[in-house]
Amino acid sequence: MMIKINYLPIFLGTSITSLGIGIFIIGLLRYKLPESIRSQTIIKILIFGVIFGSILYPLLELMGSFAPSEISAKIFFILAIMTLNITTFLLILFFDIILSPSPSRVLYGIVILAILIKGVSLLIEPVKVYRIGAIWIREGVLSNLALSSASIILLLLIYELLKAIRLTLLTKKKTRTVLLVLSCIVIVFIGILIIFVLASINFIQKTMIPFTQEILTSSISLLLAFLVISRVSHILLLPIIVHGIIIMTYGGVTVYREGFTDHGKRTLPMVSSLMASIIGLTRGIEEREAENLFRVYEFVEKIITVYFGRFSVGCVYSNGSNTALRELLRTIVNEFEEKVGVLDEGIVFDTDTQIAKDVIGKYRIFFV
Asked: Is the per-residue pLDDT at 345 higher than 80?
């Protein structure tokens, strides 16, 4: 016999919270993330995917609760479950992109497999729904296939957390940001895991799982949203320390360079000399113009990420690279070229230097 509980206030409260968070993140994306990030395909797809999912999930749960029939309620609840899972995977992929030099195809494959497993589990064993008063209530899905999909999510999350911890220990910076992110995610997933275990041994009602998930996911979304607002640059370049940036002509002449760390200020002149030689070699060896092209030059512990523009070259000297860093570099070079108009390969004027300084200053928050 099921205990009678007034679920409506709980559900409406958590749904409104989730919906408010989705709208809040939209404002965050519009006003806090620079165009250099919002305009890039992979990052844009992932961020908008998480935003769309955070809004769609509570709406589908709400539509399922007030559906006219049991079949339509099940359809809406299944769509809500799949939306929640896909949104979680997109969030994991987003963190993989900012923690890795390039997206992992293996990770993409695992994510697709987990989503398929979840879908199959819902087809084999559909969600159980109950009519309580004027609304439909569903149970949490605890079949073996569904739990295997949840286990894949947990393993992927652990993998990303360990990667973040390792990179933080290596860089010894941004530790507070990493700890805040990890704490938010760990607390939520431990809470969800405990709820699933208690429900599987019939210690609590399975119908409480959806509400608990909404409360926990709303909390993590809210915490992460505020974290991104206050530390957007730390999130996008989480494992990376940028030592300096250089803008050069194709003739190897430095237009402007700026060091952001003590190491960068000491070594950036040598990096400039090295890049002048590399640019000359690139132009001599390449059979086509190296325009709109990235090159990464790796050393023992340092990396130089280079972007070849139409008539200038941008170089970032750092301890690592990721998609966000490369797109920031591309944006800086393109914006500089747009403002300067034309640039002589062998002569740099004060106006060219000032324009480069102003453009880099616009994005300095991401490097310091």
From this structure: yes
User: How many other C-beta atoms are found inside a 10 Å radius of the C-beta of residue 110?
Assistant: 18
Residue 4 gets which letter from DSSP?
A: P
CB 2 within 8 A of CB 207: yes
Structural element, H or E, at residue 309: none
Reading the block at residue 100, the tokens are 């890795």
3-state DSSP assignment of residue 32: coil
CA–CA dist 52, 46 (Å, integer): 10
173 burial (CB, 10 Å; 0-12 / 13-18 / 19+) is: middle
| CA distance linking residue 18 with residue 219, whole number of Å | 9
CA distances to 91, 99, 179, 181, 235 from 175, rounded to whole Å, are 21, 14, 6, 10, 11
Question: Helices (H), strands (E): how many in the chain?
Answer: 12, 7
Task: Quote the pTM value.
Answer: 0.65
Going 331 to 332 to 333 to 339, the CA torsion angle's sign is: positive
Alpha-carbon span 142 to 297, nearest angstrom: 49
Say what angle helices 70-99 and 41-65 make with each other, to 10 degrees.
160
What is the rounded average pLDDT of the residues 220-247?
A: 69
Cα(105)–Cα(111) distance, integer angstroms: 10
- Residues sharing a CB contact under 8 Å with residue 348, sequence separation 6 or more, in sequence order: 249, 253, 254, 255
Amino acid at 339: K
Do the beta carbons of residue 333 and residue 274 sit within 8 Å? no
Is residue 87 within 8 Å of residue 49, measured between CB atoms? Answer: yes
**Given this model, what pLDDT does residue 97 score?**
74
State which H helix or E strand residue 203 sits in.
Answer: none
Q: Name the band, by pLDDT with cuts 50, 70 and 90, for residue 357.
A: very high
Neighbours of 321 (CB within 10 A): 23
For 119-135, give the DSSP string: HHHHHHSPPPEEEETTE
What are 258-300's pLDDT values in tens digits? 999 899 999 999 999 999 988 888 777 766 566 778 888 888 8
Determine the Cα angle at 261 with ends 259 and 267, to 5°: 60
